[in-house]
Amino acid sequence: MGLNMRVYIKSHYFILSGLVFTGIPLLIWTLDDMAARSLLKDALSILTLLAFCQMAGQFFWARTNRGAVDNLKMSSVVKYHKIIGYTCGGLLLLHPVLLVVPRFFEAGITPLAAFTTVVTTVTSQGVVLGIIAWSLLLVLVLTALVRRTLPITYRTWRGLHGMAAIGFILISTWHVIDLGRHANIAFSVFIAILAVGGVLLLGRHYNIEAIKNNGEA
Ligand code: HEM
Ligand code: HEM
User: Is 168 in contact with 142 (CB distance < 8 Å)?
Assistant: First the structure.
């Protein structure tokens, strides 16, 4: 493949993935005719939603998506994957706390009281899903951070990382559909497609690996 074609596909994939994982959620957001809330609340909400969409994008920014990322250097794909993982993952770990930040500027219960109330409302399915998703995300981020010190091979780590990612994306998508105030039908269908698509992509990747390994055995 010529260099120009390569450069073209490279920028093409960046633009395309930017459109899918950031453009479409923003579009759905602007089409939503919900009552306007404070600027702070809206900003936090959109930040959380976009960070969540990038998590679904992680499945498409790894070797799982070989066909599409083949024209990019694998090292830059993984670099992008890591940057997104730590920044958006870190942000989402803070999301339960960020939820109550607007309370600093409102009369009524204190942010701490609001936080305690939310995370102890275990009668709410959405909150329980959030707590499970949060724990899986913590595992993903921490095991990525200390990967080199773990007594397992890189391949084993990657397998576990992929499994945790599947659990995390399914549970967190369910949480967002359940609790998210912007999870209208359009947004719910959209993120369900992203999540299921990501999981299927990883499943296909494991299938191909298994076939390859069988061939070698
Ligand atoms: C927190 C920071 C993260 C780091 C440092 C990290 C790092 C990595 C690395 C080094 C790989 C192997 C690259 C490859 O073979 O393509 C990988 C693969 C992968 N990551 Fe992450 N990741 C992070 C977060 C996430 C998150 C949050 C998700 C999903 C929501 C995710 C999903 C995946 C998937 C599905 C694969 C492919 C697994 C496989 O090939 O078996 N990662 N990650
Ligand atoms: C301790 C864990 C968690 C708790 C208690 C929690 C709680 C909540 C609550 C109460 C809402 C509704 C907020 C509102 O209506 O304004 C919400 C929305 C949301 N949560 Fe969580 N959550 C948790 C973990 C997570 C995780 C791990 C993710 C993502 C990976 C996530 C992503 C979202 C998103 C995207 C929304 C929608 C925001 C919006 O529509 O404005 N949550 N969460």
Answer: no
